[in-house]
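Tokens for chain A. Residues wanted.
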């Protein structure tokens, strides 16, 4: 790991009095939280949004990260499903989600007299379609990983070097990303997606799983090297269990997992 680069991330916080780190359960924001805590100690606070599209697995991961670092954590509890702009699920869903998150973060920051809010956006994110990044920027949320030039690989290397257990955790996204644009986001769909992905992981021990929900038709995406695990018997076992939670049919995507694959409008 390029230690001077990690030092530059820690030093990014040198002139800050008090900071909120928008912490998910992933490695990017974990490294930011680590760096903030190294420089600011108790003046660095992690804030995790416990909204309805965050899986329990991600929430548990965020709590574990804070425990490892020793940083204080505040949970923001609100219901994204009350936001009609979000639930209609058009191509700007992530923008509406992050605008709402930004509003809640700013309100909380005022209560705690916090002037700086940061997140885990890195330079690799800037090359993808990420309307949520624009929303957070509009709310004045800073990106120290971008400003110090961290790629995803460098983040993982740095996280490993400082002992963060999530250094090799697969990237994840909110449960709503499993529902194609144009199809309503509902509590029922989110619940069966979360349960479904848990079932698949328990049966196969595969770490990276996306269960795409096409109005009850389930398409399972995993890394291409994991596809052979899904033999006839395994698929039959998964299908039987997914039928019990509301999926009408199940298919394994032969092309494998790819972020944003269903970002197309479906009626």
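Reply:
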């Amino acid at each position: 790991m390029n230690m001077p680069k990690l030092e530059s991330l820690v030093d990014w916080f040198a002139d800050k009095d008090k900071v909120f780190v928008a912490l998910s359960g992933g490695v990017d924001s974990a490294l930011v939280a680590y760096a903030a805590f190294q420089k600011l100690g108790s003046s660095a606070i992690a804030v995790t949004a416990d909204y309805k599209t965050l899986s329990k697995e991600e929430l548990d991961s965020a709590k574990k990260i804070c425990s490892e670092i020793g940083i204080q954590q505040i949970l923001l509890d609100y219901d994204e499903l009350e936001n009609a702009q979000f639930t209609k699920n058009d191509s700007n869903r992530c923008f509406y989600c992050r605008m709402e998150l930004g509003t809640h973060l700013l309100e909380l920051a005022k209560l705690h007299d916090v002037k700086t809010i940061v997140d885990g956006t890195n330079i690799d994110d800037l090359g993808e379609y990420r309307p949520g990044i624009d929303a957070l920027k509009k709310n004045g949320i800073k990106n120290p990983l971008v400003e110090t030039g961290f790629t995803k690989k460098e983040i993982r290397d740095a996280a490993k070097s400082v002992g963060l257990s999530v250094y090799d955790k697969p990237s994840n996204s909110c449960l709503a990303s499993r529902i194609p644009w144009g199809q309503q986001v509902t509590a029922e769909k989110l619940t069966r997606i979360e349960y479904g992905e848990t079932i698949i992981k328990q049966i196969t021990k595969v770490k990276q799983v996306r269960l795409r929900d096409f109005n009850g038709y389930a398409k399972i995406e995993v890394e291409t090297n994991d596809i052979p695990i899904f033999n006839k018997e395994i698929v039959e076992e998964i299908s039987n269990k997914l039928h019990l939670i509301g999926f009408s049919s199940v298919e394994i995507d032969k092309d494998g997992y790819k972020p944003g694959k269903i970002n197309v409008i479906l009626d």
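The chain has a mean pLDDT of 92. The chain has ten helices and seven strands.
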